Amino acid sequence: MTSHSVFSDLEPLLTQVQKPIQYVGGELNSTVKEWESADVRWALMYPDAYEVGLPNQGLMILYEVLNERTDTLAERTYAVWPDLAELMRKEQVPQFTVDGHRPVKDFDVLGVSFATELGYTNLLEALDLAQIPIDAAERTSEHPIVLAGGHAAFNPEPIANFIDAAALGDGEQVVGDVTDVVKAWKAAGGSDRGALLRRLAQIPGVYVPSLYDVEYGPDGAIASVTPRHSDVPDRVPKRTTMNLDDWPYPKQPLVPLAESVHERMSVEIFRGCTRGCRFCQAGMITRPVRERSITGIGEMVERGLNATGFEEVGLLSLSSADHSEIADITKGLADRYEDSKTSLSLPSTRVDAFNIDLANELSRNGRRSGLTFAPEGGSERIRKVINKMVSKEDLIRTVTTAYANGWRQVKLYFMCGLPTETDEDVLEIAEMAKEVITAGRAASGRNDIRCTVSIGGFVPKAHTPFQWASQASAQTIDERLAKLKAAITSDRNLGRSIGFRYHDGKPSEVEGLLSRGDRRVGAVIRAVWEAGGKFDGWSEHFSHERWVDAAASALAPYGVDLAWYTTRERGEDEILPWDHLDSGLDKQWLWDDWLDAIDETEVDDCRWIPCYDCGVCPGMGTDIQIGPTGKTLLPLTVVNNGGDQA
Amino acid sequence: MSGKPRKRKQRTPDGPPPPPVVQRLWIRYTKVGRLRFMSHRDYTRVFERAVRRARLPVAFSAGFTPHPKISWVGAAPTGVASEAEYLEIGLSAVIEPDEVRRRLDEALPADLDILEVAEARAKSLADRVDASQWQFTFGGLAADQVRPAVAALLATGTFTVERITQSGRKQVDVGAALASADVVDGPASCAIMTAIVRQSIPVVRPDDVYAALRDVAGLVPPQLPVALRLAQGSLDDSGRLLDPIAVDSTVITPSPAS
Ligand code: SF4
User: Fold this and answer.
1) Is B4 close to A367, i.e. CB distance below 8 A?
2) In terms of C-beta density within 10 A (0-12 exposed, 13-18 middle, 19 or more buried), how is residue B188 classed?
3) Which residues of A touch B13 (CB under 8 A)?
4) What is the pTM for the complete model shown?
5) ipTM of this predicted complex?
């Protein structure tokens, strides 16, 4: 099958929409291959607007890995804004890729990366615009395989009817396996879609929902999940990329043409996290910790800066200050780029003085505007429940040190609605913020220091110890936040230095439905999209009412409702919709950790204490990979000389 | 840390002030093809990154957030193509203008070409730009269909259209800004209008020209016209456009035929 660019049809529409540049492609380091040169063609989608999707590291990595294969091409597509979508429908212009402007329906695979469940309605919108049947069951061998990835793919059941497959875990290698299978299938004629799905289901890490039967019991819970064929695995294991130094992607990061959420060159300094924060799905499903070496990081930064011209380098990971050689990395990079107006950033969340040393190093010659910490829980008791081990004294000391070092603004992140939480736990945030200001004013000698409290509703996630927990209702959260706000503003002198940012509980409720939903929730997503729902991650597009109405009508036939999925606590024996998807975590270990949480018992990080048998390493045949390597970053003596590291 | 308030002290960047500008260059560049959909804001970011990739010793302002010394002259609106955009850049070391042109052009994506780089010849480049030459292509129309409307607009002397912007309604005087215009038949059944438009406040955009032609003589093209800026410069007394960065008085366009 050949494919033609739709750009000439699109062009007249672009003069009528907002920010047309996001649809034209041609970014530095983007790739357009000849259509005929490839055996297998991937359209990679980030189901949100260009400004959010373009900087996404995961998609950028897969785009490069796939395009490096001579038999494969990969192009990108993003969610189009409603103004263009309306014109595209009117003029019959299908969903297109921004690289070759080819119709998405012409590709073999449509890979969609879900960082959050709030992108599900955008999937439906894109499929519809692409003229691909929304129900996977209605697709033929003429249509692409719709493959979901990203963290949300660890429970893809709510979108099970709309996708053909989901890829669990790290994507670098599984995309190659999928490509091989599709290539072989096409070479053999490419006519039997069912056979292709059966073959895909045999790739480790690939889950094909249509090959499993789900039955429900009289209580509404799942009674069984059964593979429909003997060659379909009972449980699908996640994939894990080991030795990050062998995978220095993206080598040529894309440089956005339009303004995007991250205007910087990002380097993932390690993957995984074993701190064991019980609310954190990312930390649980990406175990074990695998570090990129200090020299590997240095090479990626140098190559990436040369390839992009970015002014800022971001050192990414779930908890960057935990890299075993982070001090040498930050010092080495700060020395290297001191003269070139390149700034370094480290998303800092750890609450300790060490983090401030790092931040000072990174802002050596720059403005010390704001520092961010994430205590997550307001009281010491609730921090024990969530396993975020930091005492109030530590926190005050850390923040005071920051002000004393010239930092003017400190942002503190919290969650509301955590398991076992009471009003008192949340109200302690107000006390903490006031103490921070009092101590900060004393330490800095200034009255204009600020502390911003940022707080959002907690959403229990699959594959975490809180997967059994009752989610607090939107009403509970909104009431607690109102009380907290009143407590902060009650003291006018201190209150004027404290900012308060919160997200109301309504989007969290929908996120909760989607993250722990089963296949029946698909009908809700569909009803919401049919009622005009899309871009649910954007407050100006999100409608809580639309979701509540759709849930009421679409779930009624099954005898369950929104509360059944969100505020209901699950029992130990309940079959959870994602139990057949294997993140490596032992279900018994998760249950014990849940009991420990209720008991306010903490667990340490397995990087510094012996393995506590969460199950991941033996289950997946993986190991912790950390330094120190003992190497350092030498100054770059000659510009462009990448081979001078120790 | 003692609890006693200490004296206020503002942190300032350590070290010597940034090196001064030793060379000012005037640059003519294009924004055409697909990348004409870029907004000016987007272009400035893309250009600053290209300067870094080209490793040009651009001079910076002082302070915690140093800005590269680049100043822009009347950029074409989003979606409108131009073969004549201008900027001035200050360098902290002297480099051959042609070398700058080559390095920058290489660092920028196709459709964003660097056409000319010249040493600054005066204090301000903006002072040497007060008019543009535009080409408007009206697909599906013959020159004879467009000409009467253009003649009518030229005859008005002043003719105002309303533009709705984010900040409200604006009155734009297209009649006063239009210095001269000429319409010929183009290839493949289209009419091509070449016009010299003065830089006014608010500036006249191609959309305003179309609106004026519609309002003054009922010209409603069957498809959206396409605009291209061909040149910018200063308009002399005889209606000629002078090149802003070439040696003085180089004429880009001859006197308009009457
Ligand atoms: S199996 Fe042990 S070492 Fe591996 S991540 Fe789990 S607790 Fe840590």
Assistant:
1) no
2) exposed
3) 365-366
4) 0.93
5) 0.86
